[in-house]
Specification:
single chain, alpha+beta, 4-stranded antiparallel beta sheet, two-stranded antiparallel ribbon, 4 helices, 6 strands, binds zinc ion
Length: 173
């Protein structure tokens, strides 16, 4: 399922969720197989002025996103409301809601930005793709190898996770 960059568009094709399907075996081998093993590899990253815990293998990429966002906010201060309020969080060893599959948050490679500015498919009745996150913020994350939950039919617009393999030429249309 190719991860397509560019202009944000509503996702209306059933189960068009590029990157939402993950290989737990691969992720456990890469980032840690247990909560304790992942926690032992977490480091602190300054995310637009707030300290967050992130996996050491993804921390440099998140720091680069933060630098991009700080530049954007310097020229467009209104963008700060998406990244400098109460964040949804980073590391949490937990299954995806109503499933037995581990969330990317379990591996310390995902960040949820400001929840108050976000939309999540399970919150909406009737189901309809919705988004408030601006293009510039999505672009800043994607430029550093983070996939965005707003590119999913099962949308989660606060959610960004470090998935550099999705951006490799072999995986892109
Ligand atoms: Zn998330």
């Amino acid at each position: 399922m190719p991860y397509v960059l560019g202009a944000i568009t509503p996702k209306t094709t059933l189960n068009d969720d590029p990157g939402r399907i993950r290989s737990d075996a691969l992720f456990k081998a890469t980032f840690g197989a247990t909560s304790a093993a992942v926690q032992a590899q977490l480091v602190t990253v300054d995310f637009v002025g707030q300290p967050v815990r992130f996996h050491a293998r993804a921390a440099a990429a998140l720091a680069k996103v933060s630098a991009r966002l700080e530049k954007l906010i310097a020229t467009t201060p209104s963008l700060a409301t998406y990244t400098t309020g109460e964040l949804g969080g980073t590391f949490a060893w937990r299954p995806i809601a109503n499933t037995n599959r581990l969330s990317a948050h379990s591996y310390g490679i995902a960040i949820d930005i400001v929840v108050a500015k976000s939309n999540y498919w399970e919150w909406e009745t009737p189901f309809a793709w919705k988004n408030q996150i601006p293009q510039a913020i999505v672009d800043a994350f994607e430029a550093e190898g983070f996939a965005w939950g707003g590119r999913w039919y099962h949308y989660d617009t606060m959610h960004f996770e470090y998935r550099p393999e999705l951006f490799a030429a072999a995986c892109r249309p």
